[in-house]
Design a protein that fits this description.
CATH architecture: Alpha-Beta Barrel
Strand content: 5-15%
Shape: globular
Strand order of the largest sheet: 3-6-7-8-9-10-11-12
Length: about 350
């Protein structure tokens, strides 16, 4: 559909239609408004903790949940659109204008609800397309060919999702494990196909291993993807070494620090990782800025759990604007540099080419 691609050129696609990149404003490029993360639920073995595992999130158990985020089933589900709207208004109050919901089809993506949220809040919402990690995939992935998956993603972007008419504006978040599973490699190659057809960017959830990001870039590159339009997410999730991040930066991909506000203690069942705190995130970003990579840096919070919402005692979607930006300014980052990372960089990567 070359005509359709030309129509989208230089514009971003929200759930309500195409918009000029200049209208996006302050953008969070990796969030979730509605999502079902039950795939990560891990039921505790101890009887007393099993009770906590199935209890609704509340002030009585939030302290335990903060350090056991994946052991409480309710914490893994953001299913209330009215609550999402209230939380989004806190982001808007701080000056935010656009939010990218990278929830995929196998995590409860809800196109019509996202469109309603966009109308209710008067915020731009960009929706993702693709598949999360192998653990969240069903057997359909095994049966589908690389070509079929690529066509499916391209259709989400060009025609809309499942007959709703609501169109995706980014490929991903594409979930990757370590080591990459066969189905995940197939999906990555399919994403390269869809990118070449649509001109959309690809956003990645890497595996929890130092070598995972470069392996993913290699697969995408070999499949013909434009690596300069690939967002490597979760740079700060498992504490990738600075030398690994520098190696990634040299490929030209975007480096997304998207766990701002996250607990520096990562759940132990995933392994022992040196996850940075917000101060360390800022310091690492400043190093990369000094080394000339500022045009590749993106910032977000990956709000995907109830414990991250303000109404449950979390930081919410407005955390970066409310708390991090003042800290960055105090530490020598300029307003123009912040604008580059939160307005110009998202505008560039979200615009179709």
């Amino acid at each position: 559909m070359p005509g359709a691609r030309e129509k989208c050129n230089k514009k971003a696609q929200t759930v309500l239609g195409l918009v000029d990149g200049g209208d996006l404003g302050i953008t969070l490029p990796h969030e979730h408004l509605l999502i079902d993360m039950a795939v990560w639920f891990m039921e505790p073995k101890e009887a007393e903790l099993v009770k906590l595992a199935y209890a609704p999130v509340s002030l009585e158990n939030i302290s335990w949940i903060m350090y056991n985020q994946y052991n409480n089933l309710d914490n893994l589900k953001l299913l209330d659109a009215d609550m999402a709207a209230r939380e989004l208004m806190l982001f808007k109050k701080e000056g935010g204008k656009t939010i990218v919901d990278v929830t995929t089809a196998n995590l409860g993506r809800d196109p019509l609800a996202l469109a309603r949220l966009s109308r209710t809040t008067d915020l731009h919402v960009v929706m993702g397309s693709g598949y999360y990690v192998g653990a969240a995939q069903d057997q359909d992935i095994d049966r589908k060919s690389e070509e079929e998956i690529g066509e499916e993603i391209a259709k989400d972007i060009q025609d809309g999702v499942d007959g709703t008419g609501v169109k995706a504006g980014i490929i991903g978040e594409i979930g990757c494990s370590w080591p990459l599973q066969g189905g995940e490699k197939k999906i990555l190659r399919a994403c390269a196909r869809a990118q070449n057809v649509t001109g959309a960017a690809i956003t990645i959830h890497p595996g929890r291993h130092e070598d995972s990001p470069m392996e993913i870039i290699s697969v995408l590159s070999e499949a013909g993807a434009d690596v300069s339009r690939v967002i490597m997410g979760h740079i700060d999730r498992t504490g990738f070494l600075l030398e690994t991040i520098r190696k990634l930066a040299k490929t030209g991909c975007y480096l997304q620090y998207d766990i701002f506000g996250g607990n520096p203690f990562y759940p132990l069942h995933f392994g022992l990782f040196n996850r940075p705190c917000d101060r360390e995130r800022i310091e690492q970003i400043q190093i990369l800025m000094h080394e000339g990579y500022i045009e590749q840096i993106l910032m977000s919070q990956d709000t995907c759990l109830k414990s991250k919402l303000v109404c449950y005692g979390g930081q919410g979607y407005g955390h970066i604007l409310r708390n991090i930006v003042p800290q960055m300014l105090a530490r020598g980052v300029t307003k123009e540099q912040i604008r580059l990372m939160m307005v110009e960089n998202p505008k560039r990567v979200l615009a179709f080419v």
